[in-house]
């Protein structure tokens, strides 16, 4: 259970990281918190000739609010995002998703950007990014670019980042007004990989649902946005039939079977937890 | 590839030769000779190797040694206030039969020390959740939970 040999690089700026990635090509891998990557390397599921450590790149640690969006730098620790008052206030869905990630010792080291770039289909933050229509910022050999969350997640552990690019930050839109934010998941034990989970946000205006955002995780190769369920919720308002909304969210899912749960079970749970999450979110928004 | 680096562990400097791929948990045990940090699953699940990195509880098996240079490492050997004494958490573990074989204990002591420092007013459920990141194969969890409760009360009392 030891990683295969590699050479570690310890850059201190994004430009150095990009130069190192350019030099070593696909023999190199950036390492953020390493809470998923190091186990994969120790289990010899992954090996690299070069690791490029992002932990010394302090420019990736910033959190800032700019107008109607909150920007979280790639290397902001998950534990910081869980408790930071500005993040809790501006992007409650991010803060609420994080307690579901591993254990507090893992969140002390794991990062927001690392989780999103790793793109594990059962992880929480990619679903939050997708639900909230977050914008992913990336820097590579051709300069910087922005990627909409809906275009970012390609498949299991696969994103639309191109060779030599790193994720530098994520911008989450700030919702205002009467809102509710809920993350629900079912796992064998707390901290385990989710069998199914949902990140949901609603904004209410009287008996109307002005905005709804629902994304599921653990149900396919990428997080899945439940657009039809969102539309049904907006159409039905605060008295919408939530079981029907849950069924709509699960209808087109085709989760796979594994040792932990069958696909059919995951689908049934998805419908249930979507309904439950929306009920809680509506309650929070109306309180 | 290997290199010569200096680790700051429990306030002492250890200059060591390590391969880049060497896990911090292995360097603490094999290079610095501090065998209080235990290694079991080596993929972040069991919690036995938990140390404090700049005061924060982290898995030493999920870091490479070369990433720890320049940071303050505290292992279970560095938790007691003085030789022959016990910290609040350590004494609570002893008082409540919070260990049987003792293998998981270093990770629990380091984890609880950091957690109760940061969240002295955690609810009982939060305390249990915080402990969920450390596995005890003796399954002596009630003793551990009672130790955590006692330590929490003492820490709350001393803060007043």
Question: Would you summarize the structure shown here?
Answer:
With 287 residues, chain A is of the alpha+beta class. Chain A has 12 helices and 14 strands.
Overview of this structure, please?
The complex is a heterodimer of chains A (287) and B (160). Chain A is 36% helix and 28% strand. Chain A is α+β, with helices and mostly antiparallel strands and 287 residues long. Chain A folds into three domains: 7-53, Uridine Diphospho-n-acetylenolpyruvylglucosamine Reductase, domain 2 (2-Layer Sandwich), CATH 3.30.43.10; 60-173, Uridine Diphospho-n-acetylenolpyruvylglucosamine Reductase, domain 3, CATH 3.30.465.10; 178-286, Enolase-like, domain 1 (2-Layer Sandwich). Chain A is globular and about 60 Å long. Chain B has helices spanning 24-31, 88-95, 105-118, 124-131, 141-159, and strands at 2-9, 12-19, 50-53, 56-59, 72-74. The longest helix of chain B is centred in the last third of the chain and has 19 residues, at 141-159. Chain B is globular. The interface between A and B is medium-sized, with 30 and 28 residues.
What ranges of chain B have pLDDT less than 50 throughout 5 or more consecutive residues? none
Q: How many domains, in number, for the residues of chain A?
A: 3
CATH fold name of the largest domain in chain B: Ubiquitin-like (UB roll)
Total count of helical runs of at least 4 residues of chain B: 5
What fraction of the residues of chain A are assigned to beta strands by DSSP? Answer: 25-35%
Terminal CA distance of chain A reads 50 Å
CATH topology of the largest domain in chain A: Uridine Diphospho-n-acetylenolpyruvylglucosamine Reductase, domain 3
Structural class of chain B: alpha+beta
What is the count of helical runs of chain A?
12
Strand content of chain B: 15-25%
Overall morphology of chain A:
globular
The gyration radius over C-alpha positions of chain B equals 16 Å
Q: Major sheet of chain B, described briefly?
A: 5 strands, mixed
């Amino acid at each position: 259970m030891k990683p295969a040999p590699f050479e570690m690089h310890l850059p201190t700026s994004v430009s150095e990281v990009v130069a190192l990635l350019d030099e070593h090509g696909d023999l190199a891998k950036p390492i953020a918190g390493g809470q998923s990557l190091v186990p994969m390397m120790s289990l010899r599921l992954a090996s690299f000739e070069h690791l490029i450590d992002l932990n010394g790149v302090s420019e990736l640690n910033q959190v800032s609010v700019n107008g109607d969006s909150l920007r979280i730098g790639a290397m902001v620790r998950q534990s910081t995002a869980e408790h930071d008052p500005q993040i809790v206030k501006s992007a409650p869905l991010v803060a609420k998703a994080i307690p579901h990630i591993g254990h507090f010792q893992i969140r002390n080291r794991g990062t927001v950007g690392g989780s999103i770039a790793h793109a594990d289909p059962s992880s929480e933050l990619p679903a939050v990014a997708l639900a909230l229509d977050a914008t992913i910022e990336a820097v590579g050999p051709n300069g910087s670019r922005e990627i909409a969350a809906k275009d970012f997640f390609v498949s299991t552990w696969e994103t639309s980042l191109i060779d030599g690019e790193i994720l530098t930050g994520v911008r989450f839109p700030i919702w205002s007004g009467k809102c509710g934010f809920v993350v629900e998941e079912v796992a064998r034990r707390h901290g385990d990989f989710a069998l199914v989970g949902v990140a949901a946000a609603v904004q209410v205006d009287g008996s109307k649902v002005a905005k709804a955002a629902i994304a599921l995780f653990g149900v396919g190769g990428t997080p899945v946005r439940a657009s039809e369920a969102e539309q049904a919720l907006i159409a039905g308002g605060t008295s919408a039939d939530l079981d029907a909304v849950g069924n709509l969210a699960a209808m087109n899912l085709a989760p796979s079977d594994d040792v932990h749960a069958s696909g059919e079970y995951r689908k049934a749970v998805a419908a249930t937890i979507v309904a439950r999450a929306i009920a809680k979110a509506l309650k929070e928004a109306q309180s | 590839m290997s290199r010569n680096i200096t680790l700051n562990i429990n306030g002492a400097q250890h200059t060591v030769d390590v391969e880049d791929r060497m896990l911090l948990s292995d360097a603490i045990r094999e290079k610095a000779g501090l065998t209080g940090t235990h290694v079991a699953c080596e993929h972040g699940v069991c919690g036995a190797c938990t140390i404090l990195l700049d005061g924060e509880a982290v898995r030493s098996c999920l870091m490479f040694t070369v990433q720890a240079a320049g940071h303050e490492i505290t292992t279970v050997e560095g938790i007691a206030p003085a030789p022959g004494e016990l910290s609040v958490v350590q004494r609570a573990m002893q008082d409540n039969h919070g260990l049987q074989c003792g293998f998981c204990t270093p990770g629990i002591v380091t984890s609880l020390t950091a957690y109760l420092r940061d969240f002295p007013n955690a609810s009982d459920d939060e305390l249990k959740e915080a402990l969920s990141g450390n596995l005890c194969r003796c399954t002596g969890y009630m003793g551990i939970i009672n130790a955590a409760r006692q330590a929490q009360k003492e820490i709350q009392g001393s803060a007043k």
